[in-house]
Batch of 3 targets.
Target 1
Amino acid sequence: MIRILGIDPGSINTGYGIIDSQGNHAKHIDSGVIKISGDTLGDKLRMIHEGIVKVIHEYQPAEVSIEKIFMNRNADSAIKLGQARGVAIAASAIQDLPVYEYTANQVKQATVGKGHAAKEQVQHMIKILLCLDKKPKPDAADALAIALCHANSREGLLRMQGVAGIRYGRLQ
């Protein structure tokens, strides 16, 4: 059994999702949203860091998965997302946790079966896959989807290790 923290970084809301994974089975442990506020960029980034560290200390994940940045039309939004993402990665790395990255398309493909699925579809599938009573908030659902994507990718890598006798990162 391995505990995975999924992070959906954002400069307004940073979603997190904690799952326990073993083989093809995943169990929802917790999920939520770190609400970001503050007057300065430094205040906002500090809140992200403190929120991620608090989640790590409370749930003790063994691995962290996070969404990669995609470039859209708005460069300013991409820069803010990159800053939020960097702080979340640093908070995880400072806690000596390995961090794995996945594109939005990889995450959606792993959870919904379509790389360009809508947020509502992700929420619906997360509810079903993790046997939740209700749909999680969009940012929390995305974070859980990122954690599930890593759990599925991880299992494939472990199977390949067994066949090829190789080691990959810290997955052993």
Target 2
Amino acid sequence: MEGMALPKCYMAVILGKHPSSVYCELRRNSTGGVYSGQEAHEASEQRRVDTKPYPKLDHPVLTGEIMRLFPQDLSPEQISGRLGVLYPEKKKKQASPSTIYTVLYRETV
């Protein structure tokens, strides 16, 4: 079947995936209209290497502040707001609600 292109909806059925995931994969990882599984894998690995690290998740002072505020029955959204008020000039001591959820999960599991 080399050289023949299957319709994307057939590919989805064969792979047991939703058609939209097949479209996304082909759009993201095709080069010049040609898809190579090996090249897609290599590109995926490179994107993983290039991903920005999340230093706030390993910041002990920030983690301590989050864990200090959490028992006060504050939601992650409220903790984020409180950190912004407590440390308006210190971005390293502030965190988004999603970062706070991640810290709470890591610390309580």
Target 3
Amino acid sequence: MTPPTKSDQPPAGTAAKLEAGREVRNLVPIESHAHWEAPSDRPDPVAILEKQAAEREQDLVPIRYGRMLESAFTFYRGGAAIMAWDLSKTPTTDLRVQACGDAHLLNFGIFAAPDRRLVFDLNDFDETLPASFEWDLKRLTASVAIGALDNGFSKSEAGSCVRRAVSTYSTVIAENSQMRFLDAWYARLDIDEVRKLVESSGDPKRMKTLDKTVSKAMSRDNVGALSRFADSTPLGYRIKEEAPVIMRIPVNQYPESAKWINQAFEDYVASMQPDRQMLIRRYKYCDFARKVVGVGSVGTAAFMLLLMGDRFDDPLFIQLKQAQESVLAPYAGASEFANHGQRVVEGQRIMQSASDSFLGWLQGIGPKKRHFYARQLRDMKGSANIAKMGPEQLEGYAGLCGRSLAHAHARSGDAARLSGYIGKGNKLGKALEKFSLAYAEQNALDYAKLLEAEASGRVQVERGV
């Protein structure tokens, strides 16, 4: 049997897909992505947030607004539903991938893979759904521009950061288009590769920041979480209250809570792979509490569950987080999964090359039969401090995020078609630079409207929580 030989020419199938991608450019030119102007029928952004708030825990909604109003960048973080409407009005290629749906700068970070090596990847999938690839890319590049301008960068510096994100994304997609499917599927950005990329920049400040982030992430494990979140009592470990962020469930108010928790736990375990079921059943239930998390997701139901092994230094913290319909669904189509928790978990497994071993989903048992997904609360997670980055540091970080997003899209999308559409050079980068700077202005106007709503009393805001 003659072994396959290397060639400078792409395989016949790849060549056809590259050409198919180029043909999409005739329908949706690259230059068309540069434009953003609010349509005349654009909804009031505050009304979009109020509609979401109506379905959330009412005592937490003011905290959500308070976190969003810290800056234009934090407003953008919480405004995924606003941008989803906007993206649906922009030129769309319909080159579909499993999209994150909320791929902003702070939804990337470091965490431990099941083999315990640190990786850098997307780490939030609340809005994941199959959709057009450029919706994710525009969500990322707009966040780059907004973060840069929030830091006081010039428009030129912000644009350079955007172009880096797109050029890195494009390069990695092109590389994946020439790879074996299995190689593309297994590819991941582990911390050693991140170190090499940072070292190649020749910036000692970036290296120092990376080392600090890695060191902090490695300390954020279940054992570290035990002292942070729980106290030892005569009845065993109990979660510490930190009102209003961490609140214990009042048993007298919800007398059926123990039954609901037990049933929910069993449903969660049943959604896991058999080997993970065997592992988690070695742990015993200790305590349960509500925990406020994030920015955009504040107000959705979120809880922390403490399990303990046979040793005092063997805790396992599980986070249960409510999953609602993706903000992309009205424009990209409904999920194939009836349970939105399963939508989140399956989307995460598709996009990540190394996912949390304890992912699962369930449906609430109480009066509100809400959907949830579950994951480890702390698994050596670390995130970047965008606010402290200078232009060179943010440009490098934007490139890492672009690289990670490309790996995620190549796992579900057709990398050759994507590469054929994007083409050579950085034409797409220049187009998205214009789009992102224009959208940053839109975001600033929307942010101002929420400030006006606070001042008029239209919305109640609780800051600093």
